[in-house]
Write a structure and sequence with these properties.
Layout lengths: L15 E5 L6 H14 L4 E3 L18 H13 L3 E5 L2 H10 L3 E4 L1 H4 L2 H11 L6 E4 L6 H13 L5 E5 L17 H9 L5 E3 L1 H5 L5 H10 L4 E5 L17 H10 L10 H38 L6 H17 L4 H23 L4
Parallel strand pairs: 1-2, 1-8, 2-3, 3-4, 4-5, 5-6, 6-7, 7-8
Helix pairs in contact: 1-2, 3-5, 5-6, 11-13, 12-13
Bound molecules: phosphoenolpyruvate and manganese (II) ion.
Length: 355
């Protein structure tokens, strides 16, 4: 993919901050939040959803296009760029007509290539800034695919929003962060700014600060946070919204990490790591060679390549090493599982004479 982005937030200091209510509920509510946010000068753009994709019918589904008028007022009165979510070509058309500064594609929409293509087609010929939220499922290619569709339609001012991934197993967070996905996206497309949405990741206002700091530690470009003057009365996502003052406190407490990468001490340690990585690679290759020899013996004696007992025994050793040396047990297991999968692949080739 050839994403040709130009910086979306050219003069913004880091972190870039987008804030505003989950949903626009009334003109008074929107204006009150915007007034409080603009007064402190921390916020680079104002967000509010007017078409809300809700899991079940009967929930508050947004005020609809009347909300565009309120966003226009915010832009005029407080000089804040305004952003809202679009899910259909009709939404795009109305936003373009109203001159909305930034559009975002929601998590449920990113998961649907037909919908993303329709949005991209409706945007063709404009270069409206678009922020693409990750799809609800942890599928990096789907996320990138949405960016590609928009880029192919001529949108060069693209950004991403990491809002976590749906999970049955996750208890603490509403949407599991699975940081490895946004980090891989950043590795592949370093020129695309990426914001973290701690509100939808945590689902709980008391956890916002921790996740926001984690995003800064991981070198995210900014944050998009849900803010409401009376969160407990909010018509959507009430548990995760904070009052403007609390957002300012969270932002003030953030420890900013330098993006500079030159440090003599780190350079010295990195040299050591490079040496160790070399040793690890050589040891893995040596291990694979032995695995090939075993493959030949298995073939000769007609023994099955996969031996569950042996596999479990070794996996257990990795897990125990993780516990005794305080490394994450799952991470230790992943290392062995990857090595074992390659070992099995090599042996299968030998047994089947497919060298
Ligand atoms: C939102 O930002 O209010 C929203 C609906 O987010 P998501 O698409 O991440 O669920
Ligand atoms: Mn929300």
């Amino acid at each position: 993919m050839n994403i040709n982005t130009i910086q979306l937030f050219e003069n913004a200091k880091r972190p870039i901050v987008g804030a505003g209510p989950c949903s626009a509920e009334s003109e008074e509510q929107v204006v009150a939040v915007a007034r409080a946010l603009s007064s402190a000068g921390h916020v680079d753009f104002f967000r509010a959803g007017i078409w809300k994709p809700r899991t079940k019918p009967g929930c508050f589904e947004g005020v609809g296009s009347i909300g565009l008028e309120w966003l226009k007022r915010v832009r005029g009165e407080f000089a804040l760029p305004v952003a809202t979510e679009v899910a259909t070509p009709q939404h795009v058309e109305q936003c373009l007509k109203a001159g909305i500064d930034i559009l975002w594609v929601g998590a449920r929409t990113t998961a649907n290539p037909f919908a993303v293509q329709d949005i991209a087609d409706a945007l063709r010929g404009t270069d409206t800034p678009v922020l693409v939220k990750n799809p609800i499922n942890p599928d990096l290619e789907l996320w990138i695919g949405a960016l590609e569709r928009l880029n192919n339609a001529g949108i060069t001012r693209l950004g991403c929003i990491h809002r976590g991934f749906s999970s049955y197993a996750e208890r603490i967070f509403r949407n599991a962060p699975q940081w490895q996905l946004p980090l891989e996206l950043k590795r592949r497309f370093p020129e695309i700014p990426i914001l973290c949405d701690p509100s939808h990741i945590t689902g709980k206002r008391e956890l916002l600060s921790g996740i926001s700091q984690e995003a800064m530690d991981l070198n995210f470009d900014g944050l998009m946070v849900e803010v409401h003057c009376q969160p407990e009365c909010a018509l959507s996502d009430s548990r995760q919204q904070v009052v403007p003052q609390e957002l300012f406190m969270i932002l003030d407490r953030l420890v900013h990490r330098s993006t500079k990468n030159e440090n003599r001490e780190i350079a010295r340690y990195r040299k050591l790591l490079d040496e160790i990585d070399g040793d690890i690679m050589n040891l893995i290759l040596k291990r694979m060679q032995i695995s090939r020899e075993i493959g030949a013996v298995k073939k000769e004696n007609n023994i099955a390549v996969f031996q569950p007992f042996r596999y479990n025994e070794t996996l257990q050793r990795f897990a125990e090493k993780g516990i005794t040396d305080s490394m994450d047990v799952d991470a230790m297991k992943d290392i062995f599982e990857t090595i074992h999968a390659e070992s099995i692949r090599l042996q299968l080739r030998i047994v089947n004479d497919d060298k």
